[in-house]
Design a protein that fits this description.
single chain, AB_hydrolase_fold, Rossmann fold, AB_hydrolase_3, GDXG_lipolytic_enzyme
């Protein structure tokens, strides 16, 4: 793996400047599609220094790929007191607009790109790809794709039994988080979440869910939707992992996921090269 140089800058967006961090490999690999990478955080937290953003982008770029992490606008925090120092929140579609604008700028510079993200960032990656025809691939980790958490299938219930309240997302918590993101419950089905919408034409997708994570219910259901829409999808569960495993770079879940991500991306690069 090569050394990586980072460059923080802003790019113009429809609502103002968008902070991004470009990860530039010292030894770019020929044919490696540039990538947009998006952190999670329930749509309300996270930035370019979050390990889920910085550590992942570093590892992806070290394999010879240009990666752009996007510091998209966040929704208001639904807890704590607000003060004059509390940053303003931005409901949907602010974050999505930033991701789409940053992605268009990268594609204009370098051609076809891959979109990827974790948790809330995975949701943003899919909804951005729906608005960006020609996206070359989607890489999604422990994402939330539904306005409400689907019922837990047996495969998920068995792995999360007895873990309620410990790093788990309940249906009520997911609903509150999603309403906070969009601003009003009537907007939950307005395109902010990709499940149940038109998925035909989305690019080949890799989905890596967390083992002990109730959000796997959303991941498994969405993987089935993608397959039913004719989207080539590879879906795997990272063994013995919790939601947010990409924030823990010393653990096996992080290493397992990054190996899978880089391997899948290399195969996508080869497929893109064969595309007329």
């Amino acid at each position: 793996m090569s050394a990586v140089r980072t460059e923080d800058r802003t790019i113009p967006g429809r609502q103002g400047a968008i902070p991004v961090r470009d990860y530039l490999p010292a030894e770019p690999r020929a044919g490696a599609a540039p990538m947009i990478w998006l952190h999670g955080g329930g749509f309300v937290t996270g930035d370019l220094d979050t390990p889920e953003s910085h550590r992942v982008a570093l590892r992806l770029a070290a394999a010879g790929r240009l990666v752009r992490a996007v510091d998209y606008r966040l929704a208001p925090r639904p807890w704590g007191r607000r003060s004059k120092h509390t940053p303003p929140g931005h409901h949907y579609p602010a974050a999505l607009d930033d991701v789409v604008d940053a992605s268009r700028a990268l594609a204009a510079e370098h051609g076809r790109i891959v979109l990827g993200g974790a948790s809330a960032g995975a949701c943003l990656a899919v909804t951005a790809a729906q608005r960006l025809p020609g996206t070359a691939g989607l890489l999604l980790c422990y994402g939330l794709y539904h306005p409400e958490l689907p019922g837990l299938p047996g495969s998920v219930r068995r792995r999360t039994r007895g873990l309620a309240g410990y790093r788990q997302f309940t249906p009520a918590a997911v609903y509150k988080m999603n309403v906070n993101y969009v601003g009003h419950e009537e907007l939950l089905t307005g395109g902010a979440f990709p499940a149940g919408t038109e998925l035909t034409g989305l690019p080949p997708t890799l989905m890596l869910d967390a083992d002990f994570d109730t959000l796997r219910a959303s991941g498994e259901a969405f993987a089935a939707e993608l397959a039913a829409a004719g989207v080539p999808v590879a879906h795997a569960v990272v063994p013995h992992s919790w939601h947010g495993y990409l924030n823990r770079h010393r653990l096996n879940g992080f290493r397992f996921a990054l190996t899978a991500m880089n391997g899948w991306l290399t195969k996508r690069d080869a497929a893109i090269a064969r595309t007329p």
